[in-house]
Write a structure and sequence with these properties.
Blueprint lengths: L1 H16 L3 H38 L1 H7 L1 H23 L16 H9 L2 H13 L7 H33 L3 H17 L2 H4 L1
Length: 197
């Protein structure tokens, strides 16, 4: 059984660990808010990806990808949302500055980030099509893909969040914080480009 799951595990690990919008948000949240305050965002992204994978395996992903106007709407809304998040990150300075009321992104933000992302739908639909033979039914495939994507995503986001936390410990000045947050905001903007091409 494990041998037949290895290709799926490899596919999911590569998909979830590669840099993108979710990993950039996890890094920024770790740097600016720490591990504990980032947990709702990380849980939301993991749950969002798991639910997208389960829905794709159950057939919803094919429907979304078959309706061009829905795809375009998802791209527009998703891009605007990611650009807004990038702006929020890029304009931050050092965390804990007096007079700022910054809050880490929420569980709902993480879920929304994945549900409106056509790349997430395409990736999970590809997994559902490629690994359908691993399950006896669409329900079993949905459970398998949802579980594997959730666990891998949680591991990936934890790694990226800790990387952000380590970066934060190395920063000493307000200028360094501004540069880091501008760079992370820029990376989040760059993650919008693949959505359109």
């Amino acid at each position: 059984m494990l041998e037949s799951l290895l290709p799926l595990l490899l596919f999911v690990l590569i998909s979830t660990f590669s840099p993108g919008g979710a990993t950039t948000l996890a890094t920024a949240s770790g740097a600016n808010f720490g591990w504990r305050r980032s947990l709702p965002l990380l849980a939301g992204i993991s749950f969002g990806l798991a639910s997208v994978a389960a829905a794709a395996a159950a057939g919803l992903g094919g429907l979304i990808l078959a309706i061009p106007s829905l795809q375009l709407a998802m791209k527009l809304v998703g891009s605007i949302y990611l650009l807004w998040l990038a702006w929020q990150i890029a304009r931050r300075g050092a965390p804990g500055v007096a007079g700022t009321k910054e809050k880490p992104a929420s569980f709902v933000t993480g879920v929304w980030l994945l549900w409106q992302n056509p790349k997430a739908w395409a990736m999970t639909l590809s997994a559902a099509a490629s690994f359908a033979a691993l399950a006896q039914s669409p329900t079993a495939l949905a459970l398998l893909l949802g579980s594997v994507f959730a666990l891998s995503c949680a591991l990936s986001l934890t790694t990226w969040c800790i990387a952000g936390l380590m970066l934060a410990r190395a920063l000493k000045s307000e200028r360094q914080w501004r540069m880091l947050n501008m760079a992370l905001g820029g990376l989040l903007v760059a993650s919008v480009v693949p959505i359109w091409f």
